[in-house]
Amino acid sequence: MSEKIPVQIDDITCEVERGTTILQACKCAGLRVPTLCHHPDLEVAGICRICVVEVEGMSGLQAACAYPIRQPIKVRTNSPRVRRARRVNLDLILSEHYGDCYTCVRNGTCELQELAREYGVDRYRYPSTTTPKFKIDRSTAIVRDQNKCISCKRCIRTCIDLQQVSALETANRGHNVLIQTAFDKPISDVVCINCGQCINRCPTGALRSNMPNELLWHAIDDPEKHVIIQTAPSPRAAIGEEFGYEPGTSVTKKLNAALRRLGFDNVFDTNFAADLTIMEEGTELLTRLKKVLVDGDSSVKVPMFTSCSPGWVKYIEHYYPEYLDHLSSCKSPQQMFGAILKTYYAKKVGIDPEKMVVVALMPCVAKKFECNRPEMSDSGHKDVDFGLTTREMAVMIKEAGIHLKDMPDEDFDHPLGLGSGAGLIFGATGGVMEAAIRSVYEIVTGRPVPFKGLDVMPVRGMEGIRDATLTIENPLPEYQWLDGVTLKVAVAHGTANARILMEKLKAGKLAYHFIEVMACPGGCLGGGGQPIPTSPEIRAARARAIYSEDHQLVLRKSHENPEINQLYAEFLGEPLGHLSHKLLHTHYTPRGRFFLEGL
Amino acid sequence: MKNEKKKILFGEFVTGAGLVRALEMGPGKVVAEVKASNLKGRGGAGFPTGLKWELTAKQESDEKFIICNADEGEPGTFKDRLLLMEQAEKVLEGMAIAGFAIGARQGFIYLRGEYVYLKKSLEDAIASMINRRFLGQNINKTDFSFEVEVRLGAGAYVCGEEFALISSMNGYRGEPRNKPPYPSEVGFRDKPTVVNNVETLCYVPYIVTKGAEWFKEHGTQASTGTKLFSVSGDVKHPGVYELELGITVNQLLAEVGGEGAKSVQVGGASGLNVAEKDFDKSICFEGLPPGGSIMVFNHQRDMLHVLKNFMEFFVEESCGQCTPCREGNYRLLEGVRMLEKGECSVRYLKELEALCDVMKDSSKCGLGQTAPNAFLSIVENFKTEILYR
């Protein structure tokens, strides 16, 4: 299919492959065609009619994003007809869109606002919407404001096609079209997994995360409160984008300084808790494998699934509740950290856990739902008080008048501030698997993984589903039962890919021992709380930042983290021990196919 | 023009004769004959039927489908209903011939939701055709087999648009899709599909038996054949008429007892409003759009009221996907309401006319592209009446 077709766009001639859209061809020709409903991650819709162009021989204007070039064509992207249609369609959308830009979280990143600016819009052509028509729908994680919705259906295409969650669909017709949940229930009561991918792709402020910023300021400003923040690897590789850095710039150390100036009493590294997760989850995997392979215990389930991604956890609770026994009982690093902070750390430094406020800086919107799960209070308190997204933190930093670029480099606090490269790569799809393989293989054989530079390349990359095998040879005496066993692992990112994997598992077509699933495309670095915009290129850049940081570290294996070993020695005892079980492990809730509970 | 009621469709007909003839001719010759007849789609868009068949016949696929578009939803149209009630066998025979021509073994009648009461009689007709071996396995003892099933719409006007129809049949929301690819390439269940209007299919058995040349004796050079018109409004004899394409509005009015009309809406809500000064224009694909609906308004009718009715219809029936149709129709209706109250300036009316042009130019499907026709033509024909109330 490398047939080349000549195309003339305005005064530029070029050749494109058959099936290339006019929009893609325009990009190749260096021409910018404005778009609104189009998104690089999503199926083509061709509904906003902003990208219309003239195609010679066609009676009407054509949507550049949706027109595949199949024969030589002549296109005009800047004619009076084209400009008029774009402007009228833009004016139609603007008149229907209710929202004052200065009270909108998307002020400055709104694509509609940007278009209006580009087109020099200085008035409403048609009577404008002056009063809100819809009530705001708010869950712990997500806020939906239909008044700002422009019916581009990016959220629907995200929810149905990209993520296959299907919490949102179109309701009604014509001017009454709405984006709705099943039976118009609140978003909190339906299958929404809080992945927030719709937020990342909404061109306006119709979808946003539930910001806890004001409550958090209160806590910071309260001298009685000891406010601790833990930062996950992905926000550190992306928050720079909010401050003018190129995508793929890691700002970990500057961020530490900024967070201290913001008023946090401690700045810790979630990578530490990621290492802890590997210790617990790796041990759990080995325990499960032994029970299955040696004892033939059918009550123990393999493959084991990772449980770090709260979006994935809720997805499996809704869509595959019969597989909940396969889900690792480990809490996510965020929650493990909270439980350790409010027990071990509180005691160690002599702070009343009641007065401790634990904040998690996460790339994730679902972390808000996770920290509010009723079972997440094994420390005797709410383990994590606030889940804050990258975008929300950027707002706080800006509000405090802090210039990130001017910050000095500062380290994390200790103990609990040391994380390995293995914990760091949790931020990218395949990272948990790679971290687990680095430790489990070495624990079992006494030798490092047989991959150059510890890089477990087969589980890396952006393929939707990847798998790898690893044969155990000459294990240590206590792991003789694994001698000659070939471990089969798989990695999936984005719940649509997870579904493909699950359906194959259900049909008995696949056999794995361990599967990593991240709800978001690209893993955490593509999380719903990350800076907007998102695209495959931006996610690849963030992944590069994470992997190169891993390479710069000396400590790259979770089980070699001295602060982890200190934690076990001083407090937890051993992985999967009594205290671990109480503080670091959890259970899951079967949920409905359509609603949070029931059906 | 004389009143010759028995032209083609209301003339003599022997069930199965066309099908038997088609089976003798072979698929290639059937397509060639229909193509030569210059038969154009009677649903409103007027796409050449033979070309549609030819494009679909050329596609290589294990499965192909024929869909009879019986989602007759254009306001003022009721001619397909008559055919489905009185000439169901002719429709089914047309489908079987189409299926034979393009290599399909399965056909569907997509029946308008409101026509649910016709489902039983259609299924009886299918059973009767199967009994006589004009449908089902080994039709007329040949290798050709063709089944027909009735599927019901749920009342959305937009589902008369072929892609929305296919989307609805596939189990999704009935919404038009981007073209290309066309249904001849990717249609029902993603297989090559021909969607033909009820009336279009009814001409097929005649063309096959009597030949393209005979068919072309009717109508004009570019608009061959006759056409059914659903005539309603201020006329003495409302009903369904089979008339030659190319007939003028005046001739048509004389036929139906509608002399002295103020204006005629030709082609339904999505068609054009024709005022007295243009009554000498002819109705055909190269003239006034022959959608099949003729609504006659006498001098007592308030044209703004008529327009409001049409715009309310489009606001309700737009699928709501694309901006110009979803928001444009709403703004046009809002404009009509402003006109009613005398609150619409001449300048704003111009703004709305420009909006109409953009809707025609940039809407995703035929609904949005034709929805402003009524607004533009009524405002043009009756500007004084509308502005100075």
Structure explained in plain terms:
The complex is a heterodimer of chains A (599) and B (389). With 599 residues, chain A is of the alpha/beta class. Chain A is built from 19 helices and 18 strands. Chain A has helices spanning 22-28, 80-96, 111-118, 154-162, 197-201, 213-221, 233-236, 252-262, 270-293, 310-319, 333-349, 366-371, 390-399, 421-424, 431-445, 495-506, 536-552, 562-572, 578-584; strands at residues 4-9, 12-17, 52-55, 62-63, 73-76, 137-138, 142-144, 169-171, 178-180, 207-209, 226-231, 266-269, 304-305, 356-362, 386-389, 465-471, 486-493, 514-518. A 5-stranded mixed β-sheet of chain A has the order 2-1-5-3-4, sandwiched between helices. The model of chain A has no long low-confidence stretch (mean pLDDT 96). Chain B has 3 domains: 17-216, 3-Layer(aba) Sandwich (Rossmann fold), CATH 3.40.50; 226-297, Ubiquitin-like (UB roll), CATH 3.10.20; 303-387, Up-down Bundle (de novo design (two linked rop proteins)). In chain B, strand 8 and strand 9 (272-275) form a beta hairpin. The chains are: A alpha/beta (599), B alpha/beta (389). The A-B interface holds A 44-50, 52, 60-61, 63, 66-68, 70, 81, 84-85, 88-89, 92-93, 95-96, 125-127, 151, 153, 169-170, 172-177 and B 156, 158, 173, 178, 180-181, 314-331, 334, 351, 354-355, 357-358, 360-364, 369.
Output the CATH topology of the largest domain in chain A: Fe-only Hydrogenase (Larger Subunit), Chain L, domain 3
**Principal-axis shape of chain A:** globular
Count the domains of chain A. Answer: 4
Secondary structure class of chain A reads alpha/beta
Number of helices of chain A: 19
Straight-line distance between termini of chain B: 39 Å
Residues in helix, % of chain A: 25-40%
Q: SSE layout and pairings?
A:
The complex is a heterodimer of chains A (about 600) and B (about 400).
Chain A: E1 4-9, E2 12-17, H1 22-28, E3 52-55, E4 62-63, E5 73-76, H2 80-96, H3 111-118, E6 137-138, E7 142-144, H4 154-162, E8 169-171, E9 178-180, H5 197-201, E10 207-209, H6 213-221, E11 226-231, H7 233-236, H8 252-262, E12 266-269, H9 270-293, E13 304-305, H10 310-319, H11 333-349, E14 356-362, H12 366-371, E15 386-389, H13 390-399, H14 421-424, H15 431-445, E16 465-471, E17 486-493, H16 495-506, E18 514-518, H17 536-552, H18 562-572, H19 578-584
Parallel strand pairs in A: 1-5, 11-12, 11-14, 13-18, 14-15, 17-18
Antiparallel strand pairs in A: 1-2, 3-4, 3-5, 6-7, 7-10, 8-9, 16-17
Helix pairs in contact in A: 9-11, 9-15
Chain B: H1 17-25, H2 27-37, H3 49-58, E1 65-70, H4 79-86, H5 88-102, E2 106-111, H6 119-131, E3 147-152, H7 162-169, E4 193-197, H8 198-210, H9 212-216, E5 226-233, E6 239-244, E7 247-248, H10 249-256, E8 263-266, E9 272-275, E10 282-283, E11 293-297, H11 303-317, H12 323-340, H13 346-362, H14 366-370, H15 372-381, H16 383-387
Parallel strand pairs in B: 1-2, 1-4, 2-3, 5-11
Antiparallel strand pairs in B: 5-6, 7-10, 8-9, 8-11
